[in-house]
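Sample entry (297 residues):
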Amino acid sequence: MVPIQIEAISRAFGNVRAVNNLSLRVPEGEIFGFLGPNGAGKTTTIRTLLGLLQPDAGSCRVLGHDCWEESHTVKAKIGFLPGDLQLPPRWTGHEFFSYHGSFRKQDPKRLQNLIDRFDMDGGRRLGDLSKGNQQKVAIIGAFMHEASLVILDEPTSGLDPLMQQNFLELIEEERDAGRTVFLSSHHLQEVERVADQVGIIRDGTLVAVETVNDLKRVCERTLSIDFSSTPDLDPLLRLDNVSLREQSELRVILGVKGSPDEILTTLATMPVKDFVFPSADLESIFMHYYDSGSHTP
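Predicted structure, serialized as tokens:
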């Protein structure tokens, strides 16, 4: 069963189109990273998946259920951590877990393991906790039922580096157990580390869905070359995957797409003094879509 199936949804608020003809399929047993800045349409998409918003057009299904027509069933079957976290301030952590545990079966040992793992004091009132400790309560609540699909909106917000690492290990374990994690985050490095696939949303439109490695292969990288004498650049610029960005007498900066093999072979015949060719990362890929205005790599 496909955990998430979105078919051409659109949603507007007045004259503002938050999501535009968005389609997405998230396979079972993957960590899917959903990326975009504030206002890109991430939260609208997530609220539509949860049945909190009805799309103006298109449809969403989660675990085979229509997200709007069967929203109660969807909510009962998934784990969820909202980006705008609001916990009942007078409840203790134990009361919060007990309340959520009353709606469906759970393994008390799993809950205790999660509490121990995140070093959570379940006896304190939630309103007295720091942002980071409140976030740990929400993470435990999302994973305590061993749901086959967990939807997470900015899950590491407020966590210290040790707990961020702990969280990433947890979702990798969930994926390895065959569960699906839909991870919406601003933290590109952590998404790059754990995601099997990444979707990039811009202005309500999904502009890329690829594995991180595939995105790296098609994204333009920067090659900076220092020469010991004035070079003849024609052999380089005749290559199909090379574009000239900047040029001075002894330094050239190129944009490179795809394999660098032909470029390196060509450079071997030129008076190269030094060069810098950093590997592509998810941040550079993300900024490619937002800084360049491009909708294609």
